[in-house]
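Recap from last week: sequence in, structure out.
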Amino acid sequence: MLISATVLLRRVAAALLLGGVVAFANLTPAVAQQPANDAALMEALKGTLSGRVSIPDEKSALLQQPQGREWREMREGPVKSLGGWLLVAVVVGLCAFFAWRGRVRVEGGFAGRTMERFTPVERFTHWLTAVSFIVLGLSGLNMSFGRRLILPLIGPDAFASLTELGKWSHDYLSFAFVLGVFLMAVMWLRYNFFNALDAEWFKEGGGILKKGVHPPSSKFNAGQKILFWAVMLGALVQAVSGYMLMFPFYFADMAGMQLSLLVHAVSGILFVALILAHIYIGTLGMEGAFDAMGTGQVDVNWAREHHSLWAKEELGARAPGDD
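Predicted structure tokens:
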């Protein structure tokens, strides 16, 4: 019995050794074929891969979507790089313009007498829209650039809390922003249709390129009309694309969601660039301009220089620059 057991163990050991030799012999071809297998795998990953799921949501069965890779490359590449440099260029351009032109002063000096430029309801609507947009803009920029710019400065914990707060603010304040834009459209639409005077305003550079030049303008000049329509269009694009993202797959499939995010990101960056120029003109760029939305009252001489036709109509007197 002992001899039989010893023989059995020897045979088992020999079989194991023989199996190892055979496995090692077969290993070399497998290694040699590894590059071909990797190439085939990468080629397969270029297509759409999907499986089977037992839950009602069939979208969860999608494992690989080629458009997703293209979407990520577009978002992480041109959208972020070009968008970021655009914002930098706008800030640098505004600083250069201020260094060249300086602040646009009231050349006739303040008269010491004011007139109402915007009513309390108009100012409330403006600041409702402005404050909500600032929060939307900052939180959106954080989602796009915060991981590279803010995370290294404040650390992961603070950045996570900041981003979560920004995400909720971004979602809920969007309703206040849309409401503000709607109210502005109701109140100011009739003042923002272009006419022949706007061509003269453009020809004279809006009165901000040269001193002593004050093209005639009504309640809103041509530059403000462009801003108005840009805000209307930009808000529409942002609202449609944003709510498609807020309620995923209710209004679009996967490709539509990816397109909505790209449109939302690009239009958002352009929107921020536009509003930066608006903030500059309304604060540092032009003397007396902030009072229009600050207190609602503007100096009479300021009104006569920048909105002569409107000043004439409101004051019932002839304003400089009118024939």
